[in-house]
Specification:
Length: about 325
C-alpha cells in the first residue's frame, strides 16, 4: 500500500468524514448514516496461504432500523476492472458472513430441516447488506465502466436480452466533478476543492482566496491529505515550506507557488532568448563563410564538402545571403 493510500485511508476513515462522504455520494445527501453509530471492521480477508486484495476501509452501521456494511475504496488512478473488483470485495464480505452463520449453527446443532442443514443457513437467516463506494481523486476524468456489463463482450445477438445477464453496479464519487462544494464541512471542502482545482493554478488560487477563512491555517490532517494528493512537486514544496506548528498557511503556499511559476517562466523565457541569440549568431557566421567561398569561385558541392554540410543546406544559406544583399541594396 502506497503513501497516498495510507494517508487517504486514515483521513476518510474518521467517522464524521466517512458518514458525510457516504451520505453525499450514495444517499443523495440525505442524512441516513450517523457517525456515532459507525464501528470499524477488520478490512483483511485472506484465504489460507493465498494473500488477497483487501478493502481500503469498511465500517458497520448499527442504526435503529437497519444494519449495513459500507466499504470505501480510494483511487487516484482509473482501474478498468473496478466493477469486478468491487463485486469481488462484496461477494467475499457476504461469504465471510455466511461462514459465520454456518459456524454458529454447527456449534448449536439447531438445523433439523435437511435443506437448512445442507445450506448451513436457515430460512429465517439474513446477511447484512454491503455497499461499496469508489472515491476517485485522479486528474484524468473517469472513463472506466460503471457496472459489470461495461466490461463484458456481449454479442450483438444477445444485446436485446442483456437484462438476462447478471449485472453489478458500482458507486463512484469522482471528486473532480463535484459541482457544489458549499454543502461540505470545512475539512472536506478544503481537500475536495484542492483536488478539483489543482490542475488549474488560476482556479485554485481563486478558490483558496474566496475561501481564505478556512484556508489560512489548516490542520495537519487536512495538510497531509492535500500533500498526498498534490500532483505538482513545486506546489508540494511550497506547502511544506509553509508548514508551522499550528498548521499550514495554505494561502501563503499558493502565493509562493504562483511566484515560483512566474520565476520559472521568466527563466525559461530568458533561456529561450539566449538560445535564439546564439542560433542567430551561428547563422550570421555561416552566411558570411558561404558568401566568401562563393566569391572565391567555389561551387556548391565544394563548399558542402569543406563545411561538412549537405548541398541543400549550403543552397539555403546562399539564398539567405542573397536576400540580405538585396535588402541592403534596396
Amino acid at each position: 500500500m502506497g503513501k497516498l493510500d495510507i494517508t487517504m485511508n486514515e483521513y476518510v476513515s474518521e467517522a464524521a468524514r466517512f458518514a458525510e462522504i457516504v451520505n453525499y455520494a450514495i444517499f443523495q445527501n440525505e442524512q441516513v448514516i450517523h457517525s456515532e453509530k459507525l464501528s470499524e471492521l477488520d478490512t483483511s480477508s485472506r484465504k489460507k496461504h493465498v494473500a488477497e486484495k483487501t478493502r481500503d476501509i469498511v465500517k458497520l452501521y448499527n442504526g435503529e432500523a437497519f444494519f449495513v456494511m459500507i466499504g470505501v475504496e480510494n483511487q487516484d488512478k482509473i482501474h478498468y476492472l473496478m466493477p469486478l473488483r468491487v463485486m469481488d470485495y462484496d461477494i467475499r464480505s457476504y461469504e465471510k458472513q455466511r461462514k459465520t452463520v454456518a459456524q454458529k449453527h454447527a456449534e448449536l446443532h439447531d438445523l433439523d430441516d435437511e435443506n437448512e442443514f445442507m445450506s448451513g443457513f436457515s430460512k429465517e437467516d439474513r446477511l447484512i447488506p454491503v455497499i461499496t463506494l469508489v472515491l476517485y481523486y485522479g486528474k484524468t476524468p473517469w472513463d472506466g465502466a460503471m457496472d459489470l456489463h461495461g466490461i463484458l463482450d456481449i454479442p450483438e445477438v444477445m444485446k436485446p436480452y442483456r437484462d438476462l445477464i447478471g449485472n453489478y453496479k458500482m458507486h463512484l464519487l469522482e471528486v473532480g466533478k463535484i459541482q457544489d462544494l458549499e454543502g461540505f464541512s470545512d475539512n472536506l471542502k478544503r481537500v475536495f476543492g484542492f483536488v478539483k482545482y489543482q490542475s488549474d493554478q488560476v482556479e485554485l488560487k481563486k478558490f483558496v482566496e474566496e475561501n481564505a477563512d478556512i484556508f489560512e491555517a489548516i490542520s495537519k490532517e487536512d495538510s497531509d491529505a492535500i500533500k498526498a494528493l498534490a500532483n505538482s512537486k513545486k506546489l508540494l514544496e511550497c506547502i511544506e515550506k509553509n508548514e508551522k506548528e499550528e498548521g499550514v498557511y495554505m494561502c501563503k503556499a499558493i502565493r509562493d507557488w504562483e511566484e515560483e511559476n512566474i520565476r520559472i517562466g521568466e527563466a525559461r523565457g530568458e533561456a529561450r532568448g539566449e538560445a535564439r541569440g546564439e542560433e542567430r549568431g551561428r547563422e550570421k557566421m555561416l552566411v558570411a563563410l558561404v558568401s566568401k567561398k562563393i566569391q572565391k569561385g567555389k561551387t556548391i558541392s565544394e563548399i558542402a564538402d569543406a563545411l561538412e554540410m549537405s548541398e541543400a543546406e549550403v543552397k539555403k544559406v546562399h539564398r539567405i545571403a542573397m536576400m540580405q544583399r538585396s535588402q541592403l541594396s534596396a
